[in-house]
Amino acid sequence: MDAKPEIAEMREKESVLGQLPVYRLYADGASQAIRKNKRRLGSWAFRLEEEGGSVVEACGYERYLFNTRAELLAVVKGLEYINKPARVIVYTDYQGFLDGLARLETWKARDWRKSANGIKKVEDADLWMRVYELSRIMQITVQKVSRAMPNANHQRCHRLANLVLRKGRKEWNLARKNARNNPDSINIAGPTAWSSPVVPNVCVL
Known about the structure:
Layout: H1 5-19, E1 22-33, E2 40-50, E3 55-63, H2 67-82, E4 86-92, H3 95-109, H4 125-135, E5 138-144, H5 152-178
Parallel strand pairs: 1-4, 4-5
Antiparallel strand pairs: 1-2, 2-3
Helix pairs in contact: 2-4, 3-4
């Protein structure tokens, strides 16, 4: 007797998943105020390990980046680097990513609003939209890390994020010095200015 349709479908999915590449993605972000008016500089870092394959590390910084967005951006950068069908285990200390991953379908159905009849958008909706798109081609699971349960690779990402944050702060101070007569001129380019592309293996401690 043939297996029930749902059992057959489950077995087919298991077979497909067994053929997908497996990645471990370690990600962390950092942020700090750069002026008294609460403008901030944020950074991200990730380490990507393909099972039985290569290891990639990347990091960068952006202005107007608060800590929660920096944490989420670190994960998104890593997922975008994969950008193909895969099984991905995300190691992060950001509980918001775990919670948000479970709410993607609900947020999508609400047009990325916090409530069905509300007008307030989900915070960092642009990044969550990208997570949703990538989740359609990936199987994403989360391994929560914490001080009580540390992970060496995640700690390395933490150090990388803070390292590049210090670099960004130095460049910010230099830009302000060069624009001494008009300090705000370095902000004209807007929040996408100073954004760092993913360049693999550029983060060295």
